[in-house]
Amino acid sequence: MKKLKQQGKIVKKNKKTYKCPFCGQGHMVTKTMDYEIVDTLNRKTVIPNIEVDTCDACGERFFGYEAAVKLEEIKKKGSLITLYINPELQKRIKNSADKHERSFEEEVNHLLETTLL
Ligand SMILES: [Zn+2]
Question: What is the CATH number of the domain that holds 82?
Fold first, then answer.
C-alpha cells in the first residue's frame, strides 16, 4: 500500500504549503534562511533571514514580498537578478496591474518604489 511511504515523510504542520507550480508534484515549504544570491557580475550578496518557499520535490524556489523588496534594493545597485514571486503575491500584483492598466513589470516596479519611499 502507498500509505506506508507517506509515514516517513516529514511534514511541517505550522506552515501552510501549496502545490509546486513548476513540477506539479511537490509542495512548497516555507523556510527562513540567509539566502545567498549571485548576480550576473558574479558578485555575491547575502540576504539575511528571509522566507523562501522551496519545493520539496524539484527544489524550485519562490520568494515572498520581503525578499522581493530587498532584492530590488540590490538591483538598484546595478545587479541583474531574476526572481520568482510566490503565486499568491503574483495574483495580487496581477490584479493591481489590471486595475491600473499597467503591465506586470510596471506594477512590480511601482509597488517596490512606493514601498521604499
Ligand atoms: Zn517542484
Answer: 3.10.20.860
Please report, as a single letter, which amino acid is at residue 77: K
Ligand 1 centroid, distance to 28 Cα (angstroms): 7
SS3 35: strand
Using the mean position of ligand 1's atoms as its centre, give its distance from the Cα of residue 54 in Å.
Answer: 8
Number of domains making up the chain? 1
Specify the 3-state DSSP secondary structure of 18.
strand
Question: In this predicted model, what pLDDT tens digit does every residue of 29-50 receive, in sequence order?
Answer: 888 888 887 766 677 778 888 8
The verdict on residue 4 lying in a domain is no
Q: In what order do the strands lie in the sheet with 44-55?
A: 18-19, 27-38, 44-55, 61-63
Distance, CA of 79 to CA of 73 (rounded, Å): 10
Distance 19 CA to ligand 1 centre (A): 8
Q: How far is the CA of 90 from the centre of ligand 1 (A)?
A: 17
Segment 22-28 mean pLDDT: 92
Please state, in angstroms and as integers, the Cα–Cα distance from residue 114 to each residue in 84, 96, 117, following that order: 20, 14, 5
